[in-house]
Amino acid sequence: MNKRETFALLKMISVFYEQFNFDQEKVNLWHDAVKDLTFVDVEENLLKHVRQSPFPPKVSELYISSSVPRIVPNPDETKVILTRHYVPANSEVVQKELANIRKLLGIEREKQDETI
């Protein structure tokens, strides 16, 4: 981005957010921060931000790449992901941990009930 595009970007932000003011120093600093981006990408990120937030964006919020999709899995996909990585503990470990919990809670069991 060049400085003229940075100025146009800050002007857009001030139109969307009345409380956002800028001067030459802010134009210079923002330009240093976003000069390696294209105006089209930053403008697209600004429009996304405007739809989601009532607050003016910080540079970092406009810097987020629009090419990376933010996908949240649905419940079925989540179940598949969790079961793929789930390895149940063996019986010995389960019994040991249950005994630790009973000890912490002050529960005493007879020897025959240790497997529960």
Please sum up the structure shown.
Helices cover 60% and strands 0% of the residues. It has helices at 3-16, 24-34, 39-52, 59-63, 75-85, 91-105. The model has no long low-confidence stretch (mean pLDDT 87).
Descriptive account of the structure:
The structure is a single chain. The chain has 116 residues and is mainly alpha-helical. The protein folds into two domains: 3-63, Helicase, Ruva Protein, domain 3 (Orthogonal Bundle), CATH 1.10.8.200; 75-115, no CATH class. The chain has six helices and no strands. α1 crosses α2 and α1 (3-16) packs parallel to α3. 6% of the residues are buried. The mean pLDDT is 87.
* Parts with pLDDT < 50 across at least 5 consecutive residues: none
* Backbone structural class: mainly alpha
Tally the helices: what do you get? 6
Rg calc? 28 Å
Total of domains: 2
What number is the mean pLDDT?
87
Q: What portion of residues is helical?
A: 55-70%
- Known CATH architecture of the largest domain: Orthogonal Bundle
- In CATH, the homologous superfamily of the largest domain goes by the name Replisome organizer (g39p helicase loader/inhibitor protein)
Task: Give the overall form.
Answer: elongated
Largest sheet: none
Helix and strand sequence = HHHHHH
State the end-to-end distance: 67 Å
CATH class label of the largest domain: Mainly Alpha
Work out the number of β strands: 0
The CATH topology of the largest domain? Helicase, Ruva Protein, domain 3
How much of the sequence lies in strands comes to under 5%
Protein name: Replicative helicase inhibitor G39P N-terminal domain-containing protein
